[in-house]
Design goal:
20 strands; Rossmann fold; 594 residues; 22 helices; alpha/beta; 9-stranded parallel beta sheet
Length: 594
């Protein structure tokens, strides 16, 4: 902690440095800070033009660390197209006060300025830009800023790299699982129709909740869990279940969200899988088929479009859960929603404690060697015990999710980190697991468990099932109609010369007509996972090139249009299959009800 305080103090001292003003031979202002000039004393405009032209990248967001005398910012601004932006990060407010009339600063559409030490604002803006530009970020450091503000510059560069890497993790996850999520989202309406909404269980408990995650440090707590199992509500995060069951521990609830086959593999060999299951609509459908106990559904906060669809089709507010990079992030918010009592984390290492990936018994368990360290780009962060521990960006993303959530709670609820190993999680109260049990887990609480699931059963009538069948069959028919429109559009494109395509007025009118009908058919939002990935891929794979001629422009638009319609058509074919699987399940339910 002292190191962080010292670093902050150094940065504060840096950014409060006094600014001396000189003028170049051309009469332009030149600023000196701590003996360093922020621009050339002789030809500042020529220097700025050279730096800007060397660093400008088409289709990128440009980040200028240090505004200097304003010349580089002005030159960069003059190069930007309407689709490009400039973020200026200037730590010294005294410098910015001298820039009131700088032309580029008045363009609020293209230019954003972060001044002083607004870390939260900087992080928020960076995340937004990195996502918008799909990691196409060009960083430029103004002359001598790394010498004038060495600590601030290092901190800013680390933050930019961190956000780029975290967005890469998020983007890879979206790309990898979009198809799984889409299939599950549609097919899981069959199970959602029979599940309890999380909202009905909110505040039903007053007992302690222990969240068990699968980090290596979980192993040392297993005996203590088993000994005190009837004194707290044990909520299991995802694949941790196997480690618990291998040690004769049956949790009181399990949270699972992952849609891939890998997640199903954690559960496929379970018999009598009746542990109450908290799940989101993206959960692998096969897990829900395997599970025969209480099912509790929740929505993921921030997924407004899908959440609205779920609530509308189920005819009640399901309840939103704040998540993050891991099922454990969701589990923490669920625990806080269920109980008014204390909540603690165990096995939440977020690091490779003792060079292990998971607790023993987890099917993903492995030992870490130098090859894996390099493959996963591992790095060191502050540890639970004040030491340094090895982590990677997926784990770091989970850690950030916890810290954002704890910051959101703002001590309205204390969360105890009883992992006794792994990464230090800012905002948690670190305490040994034994101390948590001695202080909060003094009485048997079996009665509370019975109360939790005694709420109204959400059993649907045949009329309800018939209505769901009608809605989903209608969505399937829309997909079939949309497929036909894609075929029409592709036929129009394939009649053009692929080497020298020309989009004349007649061709454009035909394509516009198909597009309008297509948008009307696909505006329900049910297929946002599939279409979102198609549109993202097309938009980022067919970017305008430097010095693009008319012929190059027409060919790029042609190839982009082909990729878009083909991508939509393939997605529609998959969606039709998912809808048919759901309709088959509903049909079986209707047969039962006859």
């Amino acid at each position: 902690m002292h190191l962080n305080i010292d670093r902050t103090q150094l940065i504060n001292e840096e950014v409060s440095s006094k600014v001396k003003t000189f003028f170049s031979k051309e009469g332009m202002p030149v600023y000196e800070i701590k003996g360093y000039l922020t621009t050339s004393k002789y030809r500042p405009k020529i220097e700025a033009e050279k730096i800007s032209q060397e660093n400008y990248r088409k289709n990128n967001c440009h980040i200028l660390l240090g505004i200097g005398s304003g010349n580089i910012a002005n030159e960069l601004h003059s190069l930007l197209s309407n689709k490009e932006k400039l973020l200026i990060i200037e730590p010294n407010k005294n410098i910015l006060e001298k820039m009131e009339n700088l032309k580029c600063l008045l363009d609020t559409e293209k230019v954003k300025i972060i001044s002083g030490l607004h870390n939260e604002e900087l992080e928020k803006v960076l995340y937004s830009l990195v996502k918008e530009y799909n990691n196409r970020i060009q960083l430029i450091i103004s002359p001598n800023y790394d010498k004038i503000y060495p600590n601030f510059t290092k901190k800013a560069m680390v933050k930019i790299k961190e956000i780029l890497m975290l967005e890469t993790v998020n983007r890879n996850t979206l790309s990898r699982f979009a198809e799984n999520w889409q299939e599950n989202f549609i097919r899981n309406f069959y199970f959602a129709f029979q599940s309890k909404p999380l909202n009905t269980l909110a505040g039903k408990l007053n007992c302690p909740v222990v969240i068990a995650s699968g980090g290596p440090s979980l192993d040392k707590h297993l005996l203590l869990i088993k000994k005190n199992l009837n004194k707290f509500f044990l909520l299991c995060a995802g694949s941790t279940l196997n480690t618990l069951l291998d040690n004769g521990i049956v949790p009181d609830g399990i949270v699972s969200i992952d849609g891939g086959l890998e997640n199903y593999n954690h559960f496929k060999n379970l018999k009598d899988f009746t542990i109450p299951l908290f799940y989101s609509m993206t959960l692998n459908t096969e897990i829900l088929k395997l599970h025969s106990g209480e099912k509790i559904i929740f929505n993921s906060k921030g997924h407004d479009q899908s959440n609205q669809i779920v609530d509308e089709l189920l005819k009640y507010k399901v309840g939103e859960v704040i998540g993050g990079g891991s099922v454990a992030n969701f589990t923490l918010d669920i625990a806080n929603k269920l109980t008014n009592g204390p909540v603690c984390l165990i096995g939440q290492d977020l690091a490779y404690t003792d060079n292990a990936s998971h607790a023993i018994g987890n099917i993903n368990f492995s030992k870490i060697d130098k090859v894996k360290m390099n493959e996963r780009k591992m790095f060191e962060i502050d540890g639970y015990h004040g030491d340094k521990v090895l982590t990677d960006y997926p784990f770091f993303s989970m850690k950030r999710g916890f810290e954002l959530y704890l910051n959101y709670l703002n001590h309205s609820r204390e969360v105890y980190n009883c992992t006794e190993g792994g990464a230090f999680i800012n905002g948690c109260v670190n305490t040994p697991f034994k101390s948590f049990i001695n202080e909060f887990c003094k009485e048997k609480i079996s009665k509370e468990f019975l109360q939790l699931f005694s709420s109204e059963n959400y059993i649907k009538t045949n009329e309800n099932w018939e209505k769901l069948y009608e809605i989903m069959n209608g969505e399937k028919e829309k997909c079939q109609q949309a497929q036909a429109l894609c075929t029409v559009a592709l036929d129009i494109l394939l009649k053009l010369n692929p080497q020298k395509p020309i989009f004349n007025i007649k061709t454009n009118k035909k394509l516009e007509k198909s597009d309008k009908k297509l948008k009307l058919l696909l505006n329900s939002g049910l297929l946002f996972y599939l279409f979102g990935e198609v549109i993202h891929s097309v938009n980022n794979n067919f970017l305008e090139k430097e010095s693009e001629t008319f012929e190059m422009n027409q060919k790029r638009i042609y190839l982009k249009s082909l990729a878009l319609y083909e991508g939509i058509q393939i997605s529609l074919q998959k969606a039709i299959h998912y809808y048919q699987e759901l309709l088959n399940d509903i049909s079986q339910e209707l047969i039962k009800g006859e």
